[in-house]
Design a protein that fits this description.
The complex is a heterotetramer, with 2 copies of chain A and 2 copies of chain B. Chain A is 16% helix and 35% strand. Chain A contains 4 helices and 15 strands. The longest helix of chain B has 15 residues. The mean pLDDT of chain B is 96. By secondary structure, chain B is of the alpha/beta class. In chain B, the strands form 4 sheets. Chain B has an 8-stranded parallel barrel with strand order 3-4-7-8-9-10-15-16, surrounded by 5 helices. In chain B, strands 5-6-14-11 form a 4-stranded antiparallel beta sheet, with no helix packed on it. In chain B, strands 1-2 form a two-stranded antiparallel ribbon. Chain B has 10 helices and 16 strands. Classes of the chains: A alpha/beta, B alpha/beta. At the B-C interface, β11, β13, α7 and α8 of B face β11, β13, α7 and α8 of C. The structure holds flavin-adenine dinucleotide (2 copies), flavin mononucleotide (2 copies) and FE2/S2 (inorganic) cluster (2 copies).
Chain lengths: 233, 302, 302, 233
């Protein structure tokens, strides 16, 4: 059990939720969170948006039962949180990066850009975001990204100069990641995708989050959520 | 060992009556990264079949009021790969391990049980809730005849203790339990998930490609407890109670209703350390109620 | 009337498919003080027996995860007092009224049905979940033979539309539904409460004097929906879906699964105006989805 | 749905809960309240402790699952509330009053003493409370009672000069009410008891709260919770 520090509504039904406590995690990992409510039985997987010394921040969108319960949370409310889970984005990466996020897929990319900035000092980090409308959180990406490009309503994939990058991290709609993979394969870019699947345990024990890869069934929660693009598409 | 919680179930020593249910705990590896699972009484393996299975397509989990539906479809590596890659790990753990076996026809059941029975395993749990592809896809454990058949044939090849796991969808669960006993089952575990249905009203479609899925979690507890209570009174072999247990109070209910031990499934998904917590709470309960061993309360409620 | 929600069920006009379930709405008087219950499609009377019954002793209600257990034990004034004191009120309401009849032996069932059938009532709902005192206390609706017997005999004396209400504890609910159809039932309603059990762990005693009690509420919805879906495919007579409905989405699920109408029970206890709310929400749903009558979605999911 | 104005912990696991809104009710009636939680499916019946212009106040004790959920509520939390339900104490009463409460049975007596003071100006109102230990709310009874006597740990019934009263309202443990009824019968005092039974609907429709009276089965929620002592004991 942990306490909510804040839960700010942003545009387009996005929320920034900070939960107090000391947490350690790799970029691209996720936590399972849940508030006591009759409308939320299972935990909800949420990527790390940011880690601060005194808490962890999630960026989520209100889309259904559980996220509606979360959206109603207030400072001081108790919330249960487990994790970090999942493999996360690879740390032993090299070269210049494009981080591409669409919709809620944007969430893990902020902490990823922060981490990359810290550990890959010599490489450029370009961030590409696809959103329906302008949102309050965008600007903060400028703290770590060497370039930030946001597209509203269209296809962010149309605006990426793929040839510039050695590595791409992408997270968002399947169609988006698929398009990127096509380019990545053509240009021999290392492309890592972060997948979303409905989960129960979050730790790899129940097999409800299985996805099909070139190497057989994999558990998104344990073997992923980050996979090589070429293994998925 | 404190002695407070240890129980003897079919001559097997369990540190405590808390056993992790099939399909909810993998083969133990994942939760072993999260806490010291050797504190548990035992674990049941993911359901295994003779041949590997890729499991069901489409959505595999759906949340319900105080429960969940799953349609994993018995994804598993098959008995041979299990024996090679997973069994050694399970055997290396200092706790009782139970191997859960499933099948879609009689032959597969018998072959799988035969294979695993030659290994040193503590116990086999026979899952008879799987649809029988040879008989209209009605699960073996629903009807008396198919139950009798599968238990009888499997018993012939199983040399280790054999526990049969009942389906709550059974026509008459007491009759089915009696048949298992008659055909030589050493113990009974109940219940498996309920056959359930859900619809995506926006898409006007069923949620699960396989149409139905299995309901588990606290929502089913009152029915599971009833079935355990009824069956415990009607058979002489010991019982493991399963269904919706999330805390030590639930465990006490099942034990008082007549179960010798319990299995915990869905609760692991809500709090991964639930096993550890329940064991601690049970210990405290026994101490503060001056009970010297948990077995004293088994079946205490009529 | 908007026409959006009105349905025809056995040639009876319902303003909408929302009907209040037996035992949860009295005879309508209490909720009529709280809101305009004539907005409802219909109401089912509290379960009536030939003779008055004082009901069960001891605790009658117990909360569970997303549900409740009740052991009212069919407390009711008996069919004669009902006809004198309550029926006129129900008949005076501008909505369909259904009379729920129970019994513990065949003769009582037949006599009660005979009595009420001579009055102008819209429909009889035959509750076959009551234990048959003449046959080991197993409820009529569990076994095929007793189901056939009671439906056959009751049908002979009932001149109004006859709906039979099934128990989820039935050995084989599809078979039971088919038997009801064969014996002349005009419709089927399902499900009644599940037989369930609970223990007071502090007192090491069962909660209910009657040992078991009936489980209802959202916890049972996924199973109820499955049963409705299965039965709807196997019988030709219309179905009323019951079990755990608390909002309009649940209603849509039952209708899409094949129910022509639904009954709402336990949800009334959580929010007394739930009927009014659901009807409003259903209307809005139909309007915003451009559906001209609710019947268009019935059975739409395969 | 209504908002919680405050939820103050007192001694002995008692809490004072104020819910905002405009309410009207008779003394001795109750409301059904519930907070969204997986540990609270049914509403909980709670007597009116006090009615103010901008809200209703309950005095409750944390004894089980539901009251633990209530105890965790904070200002600003949403809570569902239905009512008022039940018959309440009779308004057409006469003469001098004793109000006797034990444990949580004290709750309805505060609003009752307030109402009696208002409508029966010429009669004395004596209040007798039985508690385990001194509590913060006791003193407020002095606002309306002509005499307040509190007993800690013992039997409050031993301290009542029964012969002084024309009417007694009592609420608390059955044993307490039974003892009072014995005296009331002897002295021909009008004795009204407020009963507690597990409830589901709260409105008289489900028959789970039936109690046996001299006049047959009665519903505590609808025909009660207030009954004549002589009809119950
Ligand atoms: C590894 C991972 C990380 C995620 N990170 C974020 C994030 O940072 N921000 C964010 O807004 N969302 C994120 N999501 C998606 C988020 O988990 C879902 O939006 C959320 O679970 C929806 O819950 P709900 O109850 O509101 O939706 P409902 O549709 O009412 O949920 C019903 C069920 O489906 C599940 N579900 C629904 N949509 C999804 C989905 N897209 N992915 C997984 N399960 C789903 C729910 O968990 C629940 O069990 C992530 C998902 C995964 C798998
Ligand atoms: C008309 C009426 C007025 C009441 N007014 C007050 C009041 O003002 N202050 C106060 O502290 N308490 C009052 N009570 C008692 C209060 O309702 C219970 O203490 C409360 O429901 C306990 O809930 P729980 O979940 O914490 O207990 P648990 O024991 O966990 O509850 C389990 C179930 O039993 C029911 N239950 C348990 N004890 C009682 C009880 N004594 N009466 C009725 N149902 C019970 C619960 O509602 C719940 O459904 C009143 C009861 C009634 C019937
Ligand atoms: C995701 C999942 C997978 C399961 N897989 C199996 C299985 O392979 N074999 C089996 O016998 N039971 C399986 N079960 C049933 C559980 O072992 C248990 O009987 C059931 O979930 C009820 O217990 P619970 O309410 O504690 O979860 C599975 C349950 C779940 C939730
Ligand atoms: C308190 C209570 C009393 C009931 N009494 C009856 C009854 O007299 N006759 C009957 O056929 N069903 C009775 N039922 C069953 C309901 O009508 C309904 O079938 C069941 O509760 C499932 O629906 P729900 O989940 O919406 O409550 C009763 C249910 C409850 C909760
Ligand atoms: S959510 Fe259980 S294995 Fe992934
Ligand atoms: S609580 Fe339903 S009749 Fe009293």
């Amino acid at each position: 059990m942990a306490l909510i520090e804040y839960n700010k509504p942003l545009k387009s039904k996005f929320y920034l939720l900070k939960i107090s406590g000391k947490y350690e995690a790799k970029m691209g990992q996720f936590f399972m969170i849940k508030k006591d409510s009759q409308f939320m039985f299972l935990n909800r997987p949420m990527s790390i948006y940011d880690l601060e010394n005194d808490g962890i921040i999630f960026l989520y969108k209100k889309i259904g039962k559980g996220t509606t319960v979360l959206a109603d949370c207030k400072k001081g409310d108790e919330i249960s949180i487990h994790g970090p889970y999942g493999n996360g984005f690879p740390m032993e990466v090299k070269g210049d990066f494009a981080l591409v996020g669409g919709g809620t897929g944007i969430a893990p990319l902020f902490y990823a850009s922060k981490q990359l900035k810290k550990y890959c000092k010599n490489n450029t980090i370009h961030v590409f975001l696809g959103l329906q409308e302008k949102n309050e959180f965008e600007a903060s990406f400028n703290n770590y990204a060497d370039l930030l490009q946001v597209n509203y309503g269209g296809f962010i994939t149309d605006y990426i100069p793929y040839e510039k990058y050695n590595t791409i991290f992408s997270c968002g709609p399947e169609l988006m990641m698929k398009k990127i993979e096509k380019q990545a394969r053509k240009l021999n870019i290392d492309h890592y995708v972060s997948l979303e699947k409905r989960m129960a345990c979050g730790v790899g024990a129940c097999l409800v989050c299985t996805c099909q890869t070139k190497n057989g069934n994999k558990r998104v929660c344990k073997d992923g959520p980050v996979f090589r693009g070429k293994d998925i598409f | 060992m404190s002695g407070l919680l240890d129980i003897n179930f079919l001559e097997i020593n369990f540190k405590n009556p808390i056993i992790m249910a099939s399909g909810t705990f993998g083969f133990g590896r994942e939760y072993a990264e999260i806490y010291d699972i050797e504190k548990l009484g035992g674990i049941v393996s993911k359901g295994l079949t003779l041949n590997p299975r890729r499991g069901n397509q489409g959505i595999r989990v759906w949340e319900t009021s105080s429960g969940m539906m799953n349609s994993v479809g018995l994804e598993n590596p098959g008995i041979q790969a299990f024996i090679e890659n997973e069994l050694p790990f399970m055997q290396s753990l200092n706790l009782a391990h139970i191997i859960n076996i499933s099948g879609t026809n009689l032959e597969d059941y018998v072959k799988a049980c035969h294979k695993i029975s030659r290994k040193k395993v503590d116990m086999i749990e026979l899952n008879i809730s799987c649809p029988n592809v040879q008989e209209n896809n009605i699960p073996f454990g629903i009807k008396e005849t198919t139950t009798r058949e599968v238990v009888k044939e499997v018993r012939k090849v199983v040399k280790v203790p054999l526990m049969v796991k009942l389906s709550p969808d059974a026509d008459d669960i007491i009759r089915i339990a009696r048949i298992c006993e008659e055909e030589g089952a050493d113990a009974i575990s109940l219940i498996n998930t309920f056959k359930a249905f859900a619809i995506n009203i926006n898409e006007k479609k069923k949620i699960f490609e396989n149409t139905f899925a299995g309901l588990s979690g606290p929502c089913i507890k009152p029915i599971a407890l009833r079935m355990v209570h009824e069956v415990a009174k009607q058979v002489k072999i010991p019982i493991m109670g399963i269904g919706g247990i999330v805390n030590y109070q639930d465990v006490l209910e099942f034990l008082m209703a007549g179960a010798q031990a319990v299995q915990i499934g869905t609760a692991n998904f809500i709090n991964p350390k639930v096993g550890e917590i329940i064991i601690k709470d049970l210990e405290n309960y026994l101490i503060s109620n001056d009970i010297s061993n948990i077995s004293e309360i088994i079946g205490i409620v009529d």
